[in-house]
Amino acid sequence: RVNVKCEDLQLSYGNVVVLDGVTLDIAPGEFFALLGPSGSGKSTLLRVIAGFLQHQKGRLLIDGRELRDEPAWARRVGMVFQNYALWPHLSVRENVAFGLVERRLSRKEIDARVSEVLEQVELGGLAHRSPHQLSGGQQQRVALARTLVTQPQVLLLDEPLSNLDRSLRIQMRQELLKLQRRLGITTIFVTHDQSEAMTSADRIAVLDKGVVQQIGTPIALYDYP
Ligand code: ADP
Ligand code: ADP
């Protein structure tokens, strides 16, 4: 279990400031929500933590170690994208195994890890299907499995449930939370849905225009004057 620290992170595109001094201290094992309107910088912050984007000022520390130039693959940070980004021509099992390509593992070890993760997300019986033969919720689980199989220390979720209908979203949210608790992975998820953040997160940071406006537990934020 690791903590994630952002100290005064700044990022601009030209003279457009997208992250304007973001400071956060996310506890080991925490289920942490980034809440804010579209364009507030949530995805940008996730991408900086993942290593897909480089901040210009401030510091990012994971487990007490500062990260600057480490590429995404070297970080033990896993990100699940909003659109799932599954390979249509690969089976469920192959999609999940794809996360382990270039990690110098034996065939046997890859098979064992993939099977374990497929069980964790309850996809064991669907391993040989193609993504297009799956429901939205099942595709979402494949995307999650593909990330979990790399055994990340930090899990980043970019609006992971936004493509699902309401009842499935509620069900998947509970499953996700249960799995997160069981694995104890420090998790940061982005949402623009206040009730989603309020009902699942340990703590919430409210972002607006690249600035953290409020931060606290759901109860503390609910009582905010
Ligand atoms: P356990 O007590 O078995 O570790 P919990 O589900 O109670 O499992 O908590 C898991 C972890 O999540 C804790 O170790 C803690 O670091 C973190 N956590 C839980 N609730 C909060 C909270 N409200 N604020 C910050 N961190 C929390
Ligand atoms: P959110 O995830 O909260 O919707 P984003 O992090 O995606 O917000 O975007 C924050 C701001 O950064 C937006 O105003 C967006 O237009 C701007 N932005 C994002 N990517 C780029 C880019 N590649 N070039 C210029 N501006 C960008």
Automatic annotation (TrEMBL):
Keywords: ATP-binding, Cell membrane, Membrane, Nucleotide-binding, Translocase, Transport. Coiled coil: none annotated. One of its GO terms (molecular function) is ATP binding. Residues 4-225 form the ABC transporter domain. Transmembrane segments: none annotated. The keyword Cell membrane applies. This is ABC transporter ATP-binding protein. The chain holds residues 3 to 227 of 361 of the full protein.
